[in-house]
Amino acid sequence: MVAGGRERNRARVDSGSYLCHSTDMTLFRLNLRPGESIFDQLVFAAKKAFVSGELQTGQAFPSVRTLAAEFKIHPNTAHKVVQHLIQERWLEARPGIGTVVAEIPEPRPGDRKRLLGREVEQLVVEAKRLELDIGDVLQAIEDQWAKLEIPQEVIRK
Predict the structure, then answer these.
(1) Which of 9, 22, 67, 107 is most buried, taking the most CB atoms under 10 A from its CB?
(2) Per DSSP, what are the bridge partners of residue 91?
(3) CATH number (domain holding residue 69)
């Protein structure tokens, strides 16, 4: 009988806290891949969500606790991701509000050079290893580019 009473009390507490602290938070998509840093994968997924319009300027960003629980990662990793995105100007910490999505930051001087250097080199090396045709690689880039185009409704605000 005690166990049943505890269960009823737990249900009351849980349902009450759910109603009190319920927030509608859109999380971005992430499929963790073995062999790659969870931090890097999460940062990339967040940036992709910002660029594609999945997460919009001013929208609340998931808390460290929510990120850790949703993606089943250590809270320190989630905290490191949030701090990195704040430092890179993708997120803003607003006192009394929380962390929100910032305007897409202007590229820094070295960003373009880095992209057109290391990342493209990695793509070309892997494409050659797989014996892909340059036309196939260009088509794949164009397809990805199109997937990330921001819909007109997001641009208009």
Answers:
(1) 67
(2) 101
(3) 1.10.10.10
